[in-house]
Amino acid sequence: MGQVVMYSSVSVDGFIADENDEPGPLFDWLTSGDVPLDDSGFLKVSQASHDYIRPYWDEIGVTIAGRHVFDLTDGWEGTPPSGIEHVVVVTHRPPPEGWDSSAPFHFVDGVEAAVAKAQELAGDRWVEVASGDVGGQVLAAGLVDEVRMDVVPVVLGSGKRYFGSVDAQHLLEDPDAVIQGDRVLHLRYRVRR
């Protein structure tokens, strides 16, 4: 089974979006370089960011996201983002009315069920958990192997927290990757068991 990785871009003060769910400058680093990150031609990063992010993206088989993110993105119009094969949506509600049931999206109730379904779908590939409330719940349940953060030099002051509403201490190992890109610092931590 592949690793379970919690991941997102985050402000220096720990937010993944402002109070209105707007990321502000958190993703600017994804379009400020000269090295293409994918085939779209839109995402261009520094060479250091490319060399760190591209191999990680190539390992991801499934992304877990909450219903809030699914709704904000309009379900990515039925196509998982960044070439990912499947998205598992944690929700207590059914898929939206008129949703194409053949789209590679799986709606499950609870984070434990989401991780189990994602690992089944991913096989040996990795499961990426979007940070925020769902990511914090997966971490609190002891199901995250690794935390990755793209720390952007901005202070948002308030908003949606990277770890959601985690209310207990969780120890991480020392970072095993600290990569400086342009306008971003990539960090990777193993979760201490």
Structural features:
single chain; 193 residues; alpha/beta; Dihydrofolate Reductase, subunit A; two-stranded antiparallel ribbon
Strand composition percent: 25-35%
- Report the sheet with the most strands, covering strand number, pairing sense and barrel closure: 8 strands, mixed
Q: Please name the fourth-level CATH homologous superfamily.
A: Dihydrofolate Reductase, subunit A
The computed structural class is alpha/beta
User: Given this structure, which CATH class is correct?
Assistant: Alpha Beta
What is the first-to-last residue Cα distance? 17 Å
Rg for CA atoms: 16 Å
Q: Which strands sit side by side, in order, in the main sheet?
A: 7-6-5-8-1-9-12-11
The unreliable regions are: none
> CATH topology, what is it called?
Dihydrofolate Reductase, subunit A
- Helix fraction bin: 10-25%
E-strand count: 12
Shape type: globular
Could you spell the SSE succession in H and E letters? EEEEHEHEEHEHEEEE
Overall number of structural domains: 1
Indicate the CATH architecture.
3-Layer(aba) Sandwich
Q: How many helical stretches?
A: 4
Topology of this protein?
Blueprint: E1 4-11, E2 15-17, E3 35-36, E4 44-45, H1 47-59, E5 60-66, H2 67-72, E6 86-90, E7 105-108, H3 111-122, E8 126-130, H4 133-140, E9 146-152, E10 160-161, E11 177-181, E12 184-190
Domain Bacterial bifunctional deaminase-reductase C-terminal: 113-170
GO biological process, one term: riboflavin biosynthetic process
GO molecular function: 5-amino-6-(5-phosphoribosylamino)uracil reductase activity
